[in-house]
Each structure stands twice: as structure tokens, then as C-alpha cells.
Amino acid sequence: EAIPIVTKLLLDDIKCGFSIVVTAECLRRLKHAEVYPYGLIHQTSIDEHGNPIPKKRLKHNLSVRKKSGLAINQRTIDDQLTDTQYGFALSRHLHKIHAIRFNNPGQRILCNKVDIDKAFRRLHTTPEISAKCCSTWHTHTIDSEGNLMKKSDTEVGTILTRLPFGASAAPAKFSIFSEISFDLADELIHCEQWDTDELLPPLHEQIPQPSRLEDGIPFGPALPVDVQISPDTKGGAEGYVDDGTNAVLDSPENSKMVERTRLCNLMALHLICRPHAGDDEPIHRSHIASIRKLLAEGGLAETYTFLGWLINTRLLTIALPREKWSVWLKSVVQLLQKDKASFDELSTLVGRLEHVCYIIPSARHFMNRLRLASMIADTYRVASLSNEVKLDLKLWIKFLSKAHEGISINNVVFRSPTSIPLSDASETGIGGYSLQHNILWRYEFTIEEQRSFTLNTKEYIAAVIAALISLQNDPCDYPCVLSLSDSSNTVSWLHKSNHDPASLPVHNEIARCHASNLLEHQASDFSQHIPGSDNHVADSLSRDFHLSNEQLLSLLNHTCPH
Fold first, then answer.
1. Which H/E stretch holds residue 239?
2. What is the pLDDT of residue 408?
3. First to last CA, the chain
4. What are the backbone angles phi and psi of residue 498, rounded to the nearest 5°?
């Protein structure tokens, strides 16, 4: 069933001049030619009304000889590629939105998005590279019974002359162009000399007018952060590969910047790219900006989708859209009903859940066992789903539901901590305290408990308890905990697993407890290592059980009066 779809997409490439059709014999005789199979990527896009629609994308499988190391993607010299900036685009964008709200509480923030159409196909490749991006296909031939036939005389060759989708170097190459356009869009937003009444870019009439939410919806607060952004910031542009996005303060005195923000991406692309000649184009060429997506997402609004996330600037939240949540949740539930899973099932699920980890960092800890199962399935085609994996999947149902409900942007940006708990452990016990709360705590292990846990595990337990006590006493609506420990393993385990999940099952239980606590209190957690010599209060709490509480407090007040 994929054959007619691939044929249609291939014909589109040929129609636009992206691929050259040659005979199969010509391809075999082409010097330095390398032939790779086509692949079909199943994606979801949107129509002009913003409704989700299925999308098929043609790609070159340039990793087909991965194990031999002879594929193009395996021969790419990554160190020679231009450093990309788009990896942190979403983080920069959220910090900008947060800063605008922090400096302008109670005022609207509008955002929009402009998509570069046929992005990678906009860049030509050299003849040497084009020869290495060849493929073969068969023209449609129907037999007397209505079945598709593949015959040697129907085989044709194609030579791709544009940047291939599927090349590991393609994002870095294309971002050289796209980053320039995003930077220019940002400059245009702040260019007060640009009069949008006199100078308009092509396709400006395709952008809808701004859309605003009802006045009765409350404004989400922005809490202090550790990232310094100018308090004068009222707008800016950002981008990820082929998606340009903007944010701007919507106020009467900022109306001209709002209009410049609405049009900045179109103007930047018009200035950088060759103007579209309309009907005079010698070969079919679409506009650089996707008109369909302009109609759906080009208008400024308080809610919109960027990189698969639904951003609500009024509530100051980021959420997993309903269509993604329902499909991803269904895949988790289906795996819970199985004892084994294929590589395709596990690798797809891992990719989806890693997406969620961006807004719920504590969920990263529960990717370890799923990645391990995916690696096993890659080797043996299937992998068994252990009880521990299924417990992780059950917790992932909560993570997905929370992601769909929405996470405060305050919990995604680099916040100033509202609580700083310190903890330590010894062979005989654990203890800790918080710099913000007048609470010191300690616990002495029984003989059996002393023998059951390693010292690193005891440090881990102490850090989780210290964070919980801080959360329970933190009045902030969105607490931010900075956990300090003199154990480097504990600092790492608070966010991810780097141990064998089968040999240390108790770590899994501790991690689930910590993640549940953070979800319940709508909190974020950071961790940092401190030298043991600076952690003497927690160290004393974890080991000086020969002293009563009163004696220990007296000692600490004398030695550490601060």
C-alpha cells in the first residue's frame, strides 16, 4: 500500500526539480554513484484550519549499511559540521516568554509560528554528493488481475540534487540558512524604522489577525529565575530547523512591535531567499513559507503549538496536545498487556517518552529500563517486559496524564530555588536540614537496615527524604528544590539512572517515590554536589546518635551559629 504513496511523493520531487530521472543503466554507469533505498515516514501535520492530518514524508535511508560502517551517515565527519543552535530553541523561547510575563504581570503575550515549506529541498548539493544520493524505483504497471508488477524494464533511477531528508548532516547544513533567517526576524521585531503600513512582505494577507483569550481567564505568575534577561525585553524570535516562532508583549504602547512580530518571519525569508516569480517560475516552485500552515498558525495567539507542545501564555503552561497524549497513552497501555515487545514498538515508545522528559525531568530516571529493552529487541527482534519495566510503564501513565494536563513553565525554566535541602548518610543513619526552614531531621538505621543498603543507597534515600520535607514546608505554588549532597552518585540518581536496574532494584523504588512527590507538589528539582567538608551539619545529624536531640542542637548552635 506504500507503493502509490512513494510514487506520488517521488513524482512531486521530480516536478519541482529536486530529483533527476535517469535510466537504471545510466545509474549503474554513473561514476561514484551510491544507491540507497527510499523510506516512508509517517507523521502528523495540520490543515489550514489547524486540524491534525496524516502526513507522509519521503526519505533516503542513508544508514542502510550502518553495521558495516559504509553508509553515508556513518562516514559523516561530525566534527567538521557547523555547530547548531536549535537544540535549545524551545528552552530559549520559554525563558523569553517567562521573562516578558515576569516584567509585565497581568498582560497578554502573543505568539505565532511560520513553517519553511520543503525545507531541506531548498538547498542544492554538489554533484559529488548528488551522486551519493541515488535511488531506484519502479514505474506502475498493472497486470490483467489488477496487481502491481515489478519488472526490470520498468526500473528507473533518480538522482537527488537537493539536501536529502535522512542525512545526519542535513540539519546542521540547513540550520546555517535557517538560523540567519531567525536572527534577521528578531532584528526586524526590534527595528522601529520598519513601517508595516508602508512595507509589507509577500503572503502577508495569508496571516490571520491576532486571536486573544477571554478576559476572565487568570494570568499565570512568573517566579524568579537564575537566567538574566533584560527587563526591557518585550518580544523576540526563535527557531528550530524549519519552524520559526515569535513572542511579543500585547499592550497598547507595544502595538507597533506586535505588528512587526506578526510579519517578521515572512519579511526575513523574503529578504534572504529568491523572490517567488509566480506563474513565471520555469519549474514548479512553492512559496518559501507554507501557506497552509500560515493560515493555521501564522496568526498571533495566546495558545499555539510549537515543537509538539501546546503553549498557553495566559496560564503560563506547556502541555502535550490531546491527539499525541491519547495515542501515546494507548501505546503504553497496550505494552502493559504484553509480556514481550518488538524493537519497533519499544524504539517508537522511547522516542515519544523522551519528548515528555523535557517538561518532566524526573521522568528521565524511568527511561533506563525501556532503553535497555529496546537495545535487546534490536539484537533479538523482541525483548521480555519485566515487572520492573511494567511498574515504570504504570508510572508513565501518570507522567503522560500530567503532561497533557499541563506543566507550569515555572517548572521548566531555570528557576531560583525556593528550598535548598542538604543531606548526608553514614553507615548507621541519615540526616539533613534545609536552609529555608527551621527543620533538622535524622534517622538511625536498625542493624538489619545497616546491612541491607550500600552507603551510596543510604545517601540517595537521605536526599529524597530531605527533598520531601522541604516540599512539605515550602509555601510556593511551584516549589523549586536544589538538593545538595556530597555524594556524586546521589546527585546523578536524582535525575537519571546510570546503574544496572536489575542488580539495584531498591533504587527503582526510591526513584518512583521521589518522582511521585515532585508530581504531587508540582515541583521541580535540581541537584548539586558539595564537598564533604562543607556538609558538616548534615554529616553530624547522620552519625552522632550517641547524642540526644537537645545535646546535638546545643553542639550545632555552638559550632555553626549561622
1. strand 235-240
2. 96
3. 73
4. -130, 35
482: left (phi over 0), alpha (psi -120 to 50) or beta: beta
Cα(317)–Cα(159) distance, rounded to whole angstroms?
46
Q: Which residues pair with 111 in a beta bridge?
A: 247, 301
Q: Are 350 and 343 in contact (CB under 8 A)?
A: no
Q: Which amino acid is at 332?
A: V
Residue reference for cell 523510506: 39
CA 158, CA 19: separation in Å to the nearest integer? 6
Distance in angstroms (rounded) separating the CA atoms of residues 15 and 260? 35
- For residue 464 the three cell numbers come to 529524597
C-alpha span between 160 and 133 (Å, rounded): 6
Which segments of 164-254 does DSSP mark as H helices, in order?
170-189
Could you give the strand order of the β-sheet that contains 19-23, starting from the edge strand earlier in sequence? 19-23, 155-160, 134-138
Model pLDDT for residues 354-411, shown as the tens digit of each residue: 999 999 988 988 898 899 999 999 999 999 999 989 999 999 999 999 999 999 999 9
3-state SS of 525-539?
Answer: EEEEECCHHHCHHHH
> 3-class DSSP state for residue 297?
helix
Cell of 312: 498557553
Cα separation, 19 vs 36, in Å, equals 14
Q: Which residue is associated with the grid cell 536529502?
A: 164
Give me 146's grid cell: 489488477
Check residue 122 and report its DSSP letter.
G
Task: Find, among 348, 379, 372, 393, the residue nearest to 501 by Cα.
Answer: 372
- Collapsing DSSP to helix, strand or coil, 432 comes out as strand
Closest CA to 517 of 470, 452, 456: 470
What's the pLDDT band for 59 if we cut at 50, 70, 90?
confident
Enter the DSSP assignment of 225: B
Q: Helix, strand, or coil here: 206? A: helix
Q: Is residue 300 within 8 Å of 261, Cβ to Cβ?
A: yes
What single letter denotes the amino acid at residue 427? E
How does DSSP assign 348-361, residue by residue?
Answer: HHHHHHHHHTTT-G
pLDDT at 72 over 90: no
How does pLDDT run across 212-230, given as a tens digit for each residue? Answer: 999 999 999 999 999 889 9
